Amino acid sequence: MFIRTIPKFVPDNIHHDKEVQPLYNKVNNLVKDKYQNRLFAVIQIGNEQRKVTTEDIICKGDEFHPTIGDRIRFEKVLLVGSSDFTIIGRPILDRNFVRVEGIVIEKTLSQTQMDYWYAPRKKKVGQRHFLWRDPLTMIRITNIEILEPIPGTNQSNS
Amino acid sequence: MVRLLRYGTIFGPLKDRWRYLYKNDLYKRRIEAGPEPERFRSSLINWNYDAELYACTHRFGEKMNIESLRNAMTDASFLNQITKQRTEAGLAATDQTTLSFTHNEELAKRGEEIAENFLRRALQFWYPKFPKEGIDAVMEFLISESTIADISLKLGFKTLIRCDGPSPRPKMLKNALFAFIGAVDENNDRSRAELFVSDFILTHLVGKDINEIWHIKNPMGLLTKVLEENGRQAPESRLIWATGVSSVLSTYIVGVYSNKEFLGKSAGATISIAEEMAARDALRRLFETDEKRASIPFDKLYKHGLLIDK
Amino acid sequence: MSQFLRRIISLPIQSIRSFHSFDDVTPAKYISTHLKNGLGSRYVCQLQRLTIQVCKEFRTSYGTREWIANDLMNFARQHPYVVVYVQPRRHRAPNLIGEYLSGDRQWIPLSNCDRQQINWWVHSLLTQQGDPQWRLLKQMHTDSPSIQGIWTPFTNKPNDLITRTYPDKDLIEMEYPQMTATQQIQELFEQQKTNKTT
């Protein structure tokens, strides 16, 4: 089941909206369920899009301001889904609709990388080697939840 | 990679022969001396036990008295050793008045009771359809000495425990962790201790399939039993797909149905294997413990309705 | 560009060096954490104790001395879960040793580092987990790789393929969305026929 979140004010889509309304209701009921299914999401982090579920770790390979123990909310959520449905944003989902949270668990350095440069003609400056280690940030996804019914449907407020 | 020595450089036994012989001799002597004996961490210069305990209370965010933490980290073997030393020195063996601390057996019992009670309630709450035998098996895995000792080791209790040897045995590690939970209960309230259990012991289930922890020998028999209890018809298995039947890589997909109602399906190399796995899949779906089930919300169990007194 | 700048403006080479030979490949592993850290209601800092070995006289530990005089108290107050030991040693190079909850140990030489660099290294040890240097095989770790099910050749395949008797007429016949070229030619041919007859 692929569903697009269609805003109400688009006049062309009203007829289409009526047809798809039962499908919306089905998904909204699934979301309301107490023993809800595992959710997954596609989030954007630093020009990278990643598919995540709860309890998994992602590695960001650059400098990152938050320190360990900081809880982060990912605001750019492109897609959220479970075993029975998938909701795709255009291009991102509403902030009030879905919440994806993570915690920074580790900030480390990569292995020592080496770059070697050699020019046989020159004296003294003929060879240089650079050593460096890249900063890495590990983020654990703690929570993915859908807060309200799909925006643009009968059950939603907006 | 980088050439560290220029070509034509002599190194090894031909250059500086005295140095080569000297290093060789040192190496042989080190081998003869054998491995270094294990030492107490407290025997090193940079060690302040009070500071370590103070840091330990802050590490887990528990406000507790340092004396009670000191008691929780004291093993029975440590007290035995002290009384032994005192008798050897000629002091009265039963003179406990001079010792300001006790060992952690009672606290450990208290902590174990809390942990067992909470874990059982949490599992029954989150997996309400999972049978009691299964929950018993998962509990046994979580409370087992190896699991608890591993958790205790990774929480850094190894250096904090006071015992007779430099490296504490698994039973001591287990006692220390449960005594810590008991001490949290003693200093704060019960819910705080239960939160500690859910944070550090219940999270051990992450990445593990609880259907595999509880090993079912005869899944088809159990499935018929469960269906009978629910008042449904006995399961029937049907072959859905089959490919490569006469080849080495044969695949059969078998589905299990009860009164033409789908229960579960699975693939296998032979029909019997596929049937057994399909029965397991059906059980997983019936118990609501399959892959698509949401994981336990460790920090929000109370919010979801698991009450403290029940 | 940023990576290139980082290579030029780098930290002291003693601190950055690795303790395996460059002739061998760096050992590799997947991302892992101890005890699923961060999952419950609390996060546990993995650094247990920090030892700063410093000389009071030598020039090599000038930055370390400055850091201890200015920043140490603030650091200890902000991070009460780390036990800090300062160990003065006469006429030797300054070192930084971090011991972690998992029992691992990190050692960093601090010779000729200034105050800012030492602050950087201390916080680097604080935010680490204590593992030795590894090459990461994957940039992510997950326990449930597929929520909607792994694809097999049998997923979404219509079940009525079994019940049919072959050869089946419905499967052979094709429904074309628009007129094909052969059909068009056939029609033209028939039109020509009718034209000729009239």
From TrEMBL, chain A:
Gene Ontology molecular-function annotations: structural constituent of ribosome
Source taxon at top rank: Eukaryota
Matches recorded under InterPro entries: bL21-like, bL21-like_sf
GO CC annotation terms, alphabetical: mitochondrial large ribosomal subunit
Any Pfam family hit: Ribosomal_L21p
Similarity comment: Belongs to the bacterial ribosomal protein bL21 family.
Name of the featured protein: Large ribosomal subunit protein bL21m
UniProtKB/TrEMBL annotation, chain B:
Domain DRBM: 218-288
SUPFAM superfamilies: dsRNA-binding domain-like (SSF54768), RNase III domain-like (SSF69065)
Subcellular location(s) of the protein: Mitochondrion
GO molecular function: double-stranded RNA binding; ribonuclease III activity
Transmembrane segments: none
GO biological process, one term: RNA processing
Main localization category: mitochondrion
Alphabetical list of InterPro entries matching this protein: dsRBD_dom (IPR014720), Ribosomal_mL44_DSRM_metazoa (IPR044444), RM44_endonuclase (IPR055189), RNase_III_sf (IPR036389)
Keywords: Mitochondrion, Ribonucleoprotein, Ribosomal protein, RNA-binding, Transit peptide
GO cellular component: microprocessor complex; mitochondrial large ribosomal subunit
Protein origin, superkingdom: Eukaryota
Family: Belongs to the ribonuclease III family. Mitochondrion-specific ribosomal protein mL44 subfamily.
Protein name (database record): Large ribosomal subunit protein mL44
Automatic annotation (TrEMBL), chain C:
GO CC entries: mitochondrial large ribosomal subunit
Keywords annotated in UniProt: Mitochondrion, Ribonucleoprotein, Ribosomal protein
InterPro entries: Ribosomal_mL43, Ribosomal_mL43/mS25/NADH_DH, Thioredoxin-like_sf
A GO molecular function held by the record: structural constituent of ribosome
UniProt record, GO biological process: mitochondrial translation
Ribosomal protein/NADH dehydrogenase domain ranges (all copies): 56-129
Record has Mitochondrion as a keyword: yes
Main location, first listed in the record: mitochondrion
Localization: Mitochondrion
Classification via SMART domains: L51_S25_CI-B8
Top-level taxon: Eukaryota
Matching Gene3D superfamilies: Glutaredoxin
Keyword Nucleus: no
Protein family membership: Belongs to the mitochondrion-specific ribosomal protein mL43 family.
Name assigned to this protein: Large ribosomal subunit protein mL43
Species annotation: Rotaria sordida
